[in-house]
Specification:
- This protein is of the alpha+beta class.
- The chain has one helix at 44-63, and strands spanning 6-8, 15-18, 21-24, 26-28, 31-39, 66-73, 80-86.
Length: 93
């Protein structure tokens, strides 16, 4: 993406474009929501264990984890606000 987040409507359902893909939006009141991938912060213990077993490559893999989140579009700057992590869904998105 070039400097921002974008939405478009190819039909009756609007979509948001992120660096991880395209996700359908839904509206609740005046807010727009979507479920999509984002970087997840790894626990320090996970990074230490991965680096002990797999060295630098393991630490890098553990620290670059992705997860699925329910997110809301920020009205002021167009950014994404994480609301909650959705476990066991990241592979499906």
């Amino acid at each position: 993406m070039i400097g921002g987040n974008y939405t478009w409507t190819p039909g009756p359902i609007p979509y948001v474009a992120t660096s991880y893909g395209y996700y359908p939006l839904w509206r609740e009141g005046d807010d727009l929501f979507f479920m999509g991938k984002d970087k997840a912060t790894a626990a320090a213990s996970d990074v230490i264990v991965a680096s002990a077993f797999f060295g630098i490559a393991g630490a890098l893999m553990a620290s670059n984890a992705e997860a699925a989140f329910e997110m809301k579009l920020d009205h002021l700057n167009g950014g994404f606000i994480r609301l909650r992590e959705i476990p066991n869904v990241a592979r499906q998105l």
